[in-house]
Design brief:
The protein has two helices and four strands. The chain is of the alpha/beta class and 105 residues long. A hairpin with a 2-residue loop joins strand 1 and strand 2. Helix 1 runs parallel beside helix 2.
């Protein structure tokens, strides 16, 4: 679902589900948060690039499959993954990019 690659000063995190246009499931968002934290802690990494596999979409957005809407109370806890992801991106001391243009958070 996610790939983390570090090459020289760049860490690349890829959402890898191109057939479904790289949806952001709770699991994917938690993995992205972990990958950003990993890159932030790596002294050799100077920039973090987040991308999506395939050539049709970076990400379709939230993954509404798998009972997301069917059990709103039961899925409440894992939905915090989005907040964790945003928090890790905001706290990351390194520039992050979700496109070909690198911008500092």
């Amino acid at each position: 679902m996610l790939r983390y690659e570090s090459e020289g000063p760049r860490a690349v995190v890829t959402i890898d589900d191109p057939e479904r246009h790289n949806p952001l499931s709770n699991e994917a968002m938690a993995g992205l948060a972990d990958a950003v934290a990993r890159a932030a802690a790596d002294e050799g990494v100077r920039v973090v690039v987040i991308t999506g596999a395939g050539d049709k979409a970076f990400s379709a957005g939230g993954d509404l499959s798998g009972g997301f809407m069917d059990t709103p109370i039961g899925q409440h806890g894992p939905r915090g993954a989005l907040a964790d992801l945003f928090r890790n991106l905001r706290r990351c001391p390194k520039p992050t990019s979700g496109s070909s243009t690198i911008c500092s958070a």
